[in-house]
Automatic annotation (TrEMBL):
InterPro entries: Arginase, Ureohydrolase, Ureohydrolase_dom_sf, Ureohydrolase_Mn_BS. GO terms for biological process: arginine metabolic process. Mn(2+) binds at residues 97, 119, 121, 123, 222, 224. Its cofactor is Mn(2+). This is Arginase. Its EC number is 3.5.3.1. Transmembrane segments: none annotated. SUPFAM superfamilies: Arginase/deacetylase. Keywords: Arginine metabolism, Hydrolase, Manganese, Metal-binding. It catalyses: L-arginine + H2O = urea + L-ornithine. It comes from Halosegnis marinus. Pfam families: Arginase. Binds 2 manganese ions per subunit. It comes from the Archaea.
Length: 296
């Protein structure tokens, strides 16, 4: 494939600083060379311009920096659609998970899109329900136009239906978020499901749910999907995540359906909390697995 790397050094969506350095850490870990070794042509388009908290006054409301996040997501959506129009595969490097509104929105601009969301969190809050105000806890709700996002053209993706959204690895939900997910058509696979059924079975089913009747898939990998013992440098670590080998199995399941995958992103790498760039290096390994690297 012609892989187009797009960096989005965003940390406006979270209280904890550092994920803005994630794209640089992933590049430094050798992503372009690793993907080239798999056989892909790789072009790095650099980073989108993103405001910083030091230079930006919060616009107020129930979600912090919502107007600024919207502007970045609009720019990212345009960059993703441009790459798709050029016949490239957009691979977006975050940044906090709020950027997924731009990536998935760009994918959905070209046709009906299913979403597979590998994450410890549901990201299903809205400005009305959030206990923190952090937008990185809202992107799934935003894409589906829930609550305040119903009239937000920058967020709501009309070509993404909730029945084609699958969340995998969930183990941390707020009370209102849990109730909203239970009342939605989104499919949720918790860590208990993975424990009972095995990661490969769950990942295969999640991809099938997302792909059913759609024109393509968006895959979103939050590095807190993994247990903090495996990936210590993440924005919001939660104990009890998947193992190193399980994470590779999930990405190998993605690779088995790579012809259906339109866009992909990796988010929430925080070098400040990492050890020797370990989490960024793991992100590179997982992306290589998703894009076809095999043992044999």
């Amino acid at each position: 494939m012609n892989v187009r790397l797009i960096g989005v050094p965003m940390d406006l969506g979270a209280d904890r600083r550092g994920v803005d350095m994630g794209p640089s850490a992933i590049r430094y870990a050798g992503l372009a060379d690793e993907l080239a070794a798999v056989g892909h042509d790789v072009r790095d388009d650099g980073d989108l311009a993103v405001p910083t908290p030091e230079t930006t006054a919060d616009s107020g409301g129930g979600a912090k920096y919502l107007a600024e996040t919207a502007e970045v997501c609009r720019d990212l959506r345009a960059a993703v659609t441009d790459a798709l129009d050029d016949g490239a595969f957009p691979l977006v490097l975050g940044g906090d998970h709020s950027i997924a509104v731009g990536t998935a929105g760009g994918a959905a601009a070209t046709g009906s899109t299913g979403v597979v969301w590998f994450d410890a969190h549901g990201d299903f809050n809205t400005p009305e329900t959030t206990p923190s105000g952090n937008v990185h806890g809202m992107p799934v709700a935003a894409l589906l136009g829930r609550g305040e996002f119903a009239d937000a053209a920058w967020a709501r993706a009309s070509n993404i239906d909730p029945e084609n959204v699958a969340l995998v690895g969930i183990r941390s939900l707020d009370d209102a978020e849990r109730a909203a997910l239970a009342d939605s058509e989104v499919t949720v696979y918790t860590m208990s499901d993975i424990d009972e059924r095995g990661l490969t079975d769950v990942a295969d089913e999640a991809l099938a749910v997302a792909a059913d009747g759609t024109d393509g898939l968006h895959v979103s990998l939050d590095m807190d999907f993994l247990d903090p013992d495996e990936a210590p440098g993440v924005g919001t670590p939660v104990r009890g995540g998947v193992t190193y080998r399980e994470a590779h199995a999930a990405m190998e399941a993605v690779a088995d359906r790579i012809d259906d995958v339109r866009t992909m992103e990796v988010v929430e790498v925080n070098p400040i909390l990492d050890s020797h760039n370990r989490t960024a290096e793991l992100a590179v390994e997982l992306l290589a697995s998703a894009l076809g690297k095999r043992i044999l």
